[in-house]
Write a structure and sequence with these properties.
The structure is a homodimer.
Chain A lengths: L16 H12 L3 H4 L19 E10 L5 E4 L6 H17 L17 E9 L11 E6 L2 E8 H14 L1 E3 L2 E11 L5 E7 L7 H13 L4 E8 L2 E2 L8 H6 L7 H13 L3 E6 L6 H6 L28 H17 L4 E3 L8 H5 L1 H9 L5 H18 L3 E5 L12 E4 L3 H9 L3 E4 L11 H5 L12 H4 L2 E8 L9 H5 L2 H10 L7 H15 L9 H8 L8 H13 E3 L21 H4 L5 H16 L2 H27 L7 H23 L5 H14 L6 E3 L2 H13 L3
Parallel strand pairs in A: 2-3, 3-5, 8-9, 8-16, 9-11, 12-13, 13-14, 14-15, 15-16
Antiparallel strand pairs in A: 1-7, 4-5, 4-7, 6-7, 9-10, 17-18
Chain lengths: ~700, ~700
């Protein structure tokens, strides 16, 4: 932060957050391709903090890092903070290549030589509303990290690592003062281990990445129609017959909980009932509403199998099952799903119909409410607070439950007005391949919220949801990261932090740093592209062309992949070109910004850069068309490559019109608009993310008065 | 294999192995950079089998693969072969993108529609000399895979997957007949989890990769001066105090053993005693030869701490400890290390000296022999056969022990002549960053072996050894793969299979395929290079330049990294440029071949290609020099980049001499030879792998008579 900031030797120059953002905004307006021609500037030295802390003041001075960098606190080996410091030191050494002298695994006792001092008052509890704040003071000779709880230490160390900077003399931390605490206490990531089983290491590496952006809750979706994923000792047929052998042992669950605890992350299990429950009934059909036998579901959607709420044995089953799971998962909250219940089997079962009459339950909603009340009693006996999706809401529930909204903020508002706590997931469905921007601007408490201050306190936060219909261990990281870091910032940073361009600038840097934690969101793409070549490896220029196509192609959004002509199941391959593409093309975003700058500035050197892109993409189109003809698995990208060719040609035509100062005729314009509509259609389950920029260029050509 | 092979409709045309190799040799003589300008040929369709099966006959016909490809055997879900077929189907779908119809996780009962039929007689046992043979018959409409044991099915499925080919009509298996069995029964990979702890997933993904090249033994090095890596319930201070918290729980060990068993891989533990044992004594100093306290060793080398063989309590300790471990690890063999015992603490301990006198033990070797005999008794009581390094050899040991030779084939010969079984590891030390060629040509029974046929049977095979002083979870895969695939071929394929060029041709393809198993040997390099940029990400052309430098730089060989000015410890960063480099530069090898072809052919179009390389590398040198100046962690590569600049300049000078038909003067030659000696010196702990090719070029210029 040394650039453009006046130094003041007589104390902290108070560079407030606003000016930081403005400065970053300036930087972010220089698109990356343009930056290639810009000479080295101090811009490289601006640290990318994400989530942005509540208060950052940098002095312009530098704390230099060398081999003698020692960390110390009044702590004991094996404590959570001690281990966090050890991880910090390992990562610091890893990023800088510095051979740190301290044996930080064995001893962090402060000594005269200690440079990083950490101090906390007590061990934080892994519950909502626990104190996660910290205070970081960096002077040229000493760093102090202080926090009420060790959770604050864990959070602060991530910030300190993000501050790591370099100049020609070496590595340093910019000096300054930071005070930070989260805006929301419930900052979660839902991982669905059911639609596709995700091996333990996937969960573990994502926990590390979550900690890097200060998320504090893993919502673990553990049962579904497609699989029951936890070893049950009381009802072993659940995992034995309901998982194809793909489940977590209880020891593995404990490993995850232990790692999460080390990182200051809660682990809340979800067992989705009474619907979404086919896999339970493969081993235990007697608790279903229709007679079996049942098979593990391979398709995706909402299915008929549902627990029988009229059978007293069902509740005895859950009594025992939740007793077992309540002991396994220490979190005070327990998620019972409750969403999307299909009532077909209830209607078809005369005993259930009789039961409804007898208990004056007029409809299926009332029947589910009855079921939930019974489940609530069981959970309460086992000292768990209930969490569920929107559908669980009903009058008369205790006030300590939490409603998770997949439906929207209005549901949260309604709940809060009734005094219920809520968390937002609508708008954070990262499986739908939407932009980081869209998630980023989605606020659990939007600026125009009608809630009172007291009611707002009931909105605990939000959760990104990684539903796993279309991901495997290979691709799931790229669906989670880096976009979830933007959601993490929304949930941690002050509400005013909403600068989208600056978010993207930082996101690119954070995205690369996240791979340090083992997540594979970036590095798996080239590997997966290479695999498409099979036994005839691509030539380097072919590989580059395919990668260039992948960089501007996005999987179709929302649930559209299910209507592209192929029936996806949990056994279908997720290794095709579309699976190699990132949910959001950052290059397309850069390009859109570049077109914007050109349109606003009308400078010809900008047009040349835009033209360069089109020339590049025509080449990419030609090469990938050729690949499509030669590799069977790539046949499907032929039409996508042809679309890119047409789109690039159109872009060039528009630029030539502009260059010549000519206006196109109405017929030409009409035909090109139609063409653009054509080019928007999905090909190979992808869309070309640069279409909107070309559309904007065409619109400008049409409207331009010059 | 359809190219250049005459079809014969009236039966199998018998294309014997020799002709296969000759054909592949022809292909391998076309260097890859030259191939870029070669038009599409059938070459792309030649499957890369590795290890090469004992007998392969291809008919030129094709078995076409589509959605209706069903697999079936008389088998039950959950059996080892059933699971192997399920994995095969998943990988087949993954490589081809084909939506297979069969629910192969639930049912593989043969039906009329079944295309792949598998059949085995019995469950194979995980012991040496078990039958792993298989027979694969591929006809246009049906595939039969037959084997005496399910191990053969597992091996055969890997071969079938390697046969997968593609043409313009889609994917197919080439039809033919294969009969295959291993040459050696002991085909191992040693993984050292001690010098650096390797998380469970590292071990698991490497097991999958091992299975892909038909290795059948994981030799798991679990205790060392630097760490004790297994949970012990009888002596919990072993892992509690001896591991910094980095150890495998017994549940995790069981997971590894279960996965290995599914893959037909044995897991043999090594607990290295009486030396290499510092970490044991942190918790149990009473069994050491010198009083404590002990600390976990951070450095590398051979250290003084050693068990006290004169203390009866030592043997009581091992009795209990091995009882626990013998139950945990089902393999009949148990490795006790026994290498590199330092006797300093024995000499310094008067009780030990008195003990030696009393028992007529004249020297330390005799003392260790005494110790080993006691240990052998314990192992025998627990029904384990002893394995150890060369040093355990002593007269009078039972004939069922196995000696693992790190010293060389002569030691094996000596052992065999005494009737002892042996395995070779000398020459398979993959941690030393030698070439695949060197390992490949290293034969446990070389053609000139003086052993009788009966004695040869005592040579059970060999093991690649992945010692972990200089690797982490991020880099270990790139030190194991792909070179270990070459060792796997040496141990599996017939002794006559020794064509180095053909091995490399296949190795490149197999290397890419291995990543399907999760190993990260290729994909981690770009990630690690990116990380060197820290918060100022490289521009794309900078990243490419750095990668190009990494592609021709190799870490210094042998143990030379320890004498380059930095003291490595288990806490030192292994994230620098040298760690990003592969042990062997395949590009440098291609280049050497290219130079060879030019020198032999004297064709000018070849010279132009060589010149192109030098031009490229001068550019790479200029760009990476600039990076070295701007990124602190890259400072050290400045001299390496400068060396590349000088080397490329020299290469260009030589080519110009040749082009002009001029001979250089003696003084020039002398100075350039001196320069080459300079350029061979390590920089940034790396060497430029293209120096020998330039040296060859210079040598040819000097000797050429034209």
């Amino acid at each position: 932060m040394s650039v453009g900031i006046e130094k003041n030797k007589s104390g902290w120059p108070r560079i407030v957050l606003a000016s930081l953002i403005l400065f970053n905004l300036y930087l972010s307006l220089v698109p990356s391709i343009a930056a290639r021609t810009v000479k080295e500037t101090g811009a490289a030295a601006v640290p990318a903090l994400m989530p942005l802390p509540a208060r950052v003041e940098l002095s312009g001075e530098k704390f230099r890092i060398d081999e003698k960098f020692y960390a110390g606190g009044k702590d004991r080996p094996g404590s959570r903070a001690f281990k966090a410091v050890a991880r910090f030191m390992t990562r610091l050494a890893g990023r800088t290549g510095i051979f740190l002298e301290q044996d930080f695994l064995a001893d962090q006792t402060p000594a005269a030589s200690t440079r990083l001092h950490y101090q906390y008052e007590r061990t934080g509890r892994l519950i909502p509303n626990e104190d996660e704040s910290y205070r970081l003071e960096i002077k040229p000779g000493r760093i102090d990290l202080q926090a009420p709880t060790d959770l604050g230490i864990i959070r602060g160390l991530e910030t300190l690592l993000q501050l790591l900077s370099a100049d020609s003399q070496g590595y340093y931390f910019p000096c300054g003062f930071l005070q930070d605490q989260p805006r929301f206490t419930w900052r979660g990531l839902l991982i669905d281990s059911c639609r596709h089983f995700l091996p333990l290491e996937v969960v573990k590496r994502n926990l590390l990445a979550m900690a890097a952006v200060k998320l504090n809750l893993l919502h673990w979706h553990l049962s579904e129609d497609q699989g029951f994923r936890v070893e049950s000792r009381t009802f072993p047929r659940l995992h034995q017959l309901g998982s194809d052998g793909f489940y977590y042992t209880q020891e593995q669950i404990k490993e995850v909980i232990e790692l999460a605890s080390d990182l200051g992350i809660r682990v809340m299990p979800e067992f989705d009932i009474p619907g979404h429950s086919t896999s339970w009934f493969v081993g235990y059909p007697e608790y279903a509403s229709a007679p079996g036998p049942y098979r593990i579901e391979r398709g995706f959607g909402v299915f008929h199998p549902v627990f029988n709420p009229a059978n007293p044995a069902t509740y005895r089953f859950f009594e025992k099952f939740f007793q077992e799971m309540a002991a396994l998962f220490p979190d005070p909250y327990f998620h019972i799903g409750g969403d999307e219940v299909e009532a077909v089997h209830w209607k078809d079962n005369p005993e259930i119909q009789a039961f409804m009459k007898k208990h004056h339950l007029p409809d299926n909603h009332a029947l589910q409410a009855y079921f939930n009340k019974e489940i609530l009693k069981i959970l309460t006996r086992h000292k768990k607070k209930m969490v569920g999706w929107d559908e669980i809401y009903q009058p008369g529930l205790p006030r300590d439950i939490v409603i998770q909204s997949w439906r929207g903020t209005q549901a949260l508002v309604d709940g809060a007005r009734q005094g219920y706590q809520g968390i937002l997931s609508n708008g954070y469905y990262i499986d739908l391949c939407e932009s980081a921007e869209r998630h980023y601007l989605n606020d659990p408490i939007p600026p125009d919220s009608p809630l009172s201050e007291a009611e707002k306190k009931l909105i605990l936060g939000g959760e990104a949801t990684m539903w796993a219909e279309l991901v495997t261990a290979e691709t799931v990281d790229s669906r989670i990261w880096p976009r979830t870091a933007a959601i993490a910032e929304r949930l941690w940073s002050p509400a005013e932090v909403r600068d989208v361009n600056d978010m993207y600038r930082r996101l690119k840097i954070i995205s690369q740093q996240l791979e340090e934690n083992g997540v594979q969101h970036l590095k798996n793409q080239p590997m997966m592209l290479r695999r498409l070549a099979g036994t005839a490896p691509f030539r380097p220029e072919e590989e580059r062309a395919l990668q260039a196509l992948a960089e501007i192609a996005e999987p179709v959004k929302g649930y559209a992949r299910h209507s592209q002509g192929r029936r996806y199941t949990s056994l279908a391959p997720l290794t095709r070109f579309v699976d190699c593409c990132f949910p959001e093309s950052l290059e397309a975003r850069d390009f859109r910004n570049l077109v914007e700058v050109f349109v606003q500035s009308r400078k010809w050197d900008r047009a040349a850069v835009v033209m360069d892109y089109f020339i590049k993409w025509r080449g990419v189109a030609a090469q990938t068309k050729a690949l499509a003809g030669r590799y069977p698995v790539l046949n499907e990208i032929g039409p996508l490559a042809r679309n890119l060719e047409e789109l690039s040609t159109l872009g060039q035509e528009i630029l030539i019109f502009i260059q010549k100062g000519e206006k196109p005729g109405a017929e030409w314009l009409e035909s090109r608009k139609k063409l653009l509509e054509e080019l928007k259609k999905p090909r190979a389950e992808c869309q070309l993310a640069i279409v909107p920029a070309v559309e904007a260029l065409l619109g400008w050509l049409e409207q331009d008065k010059n």
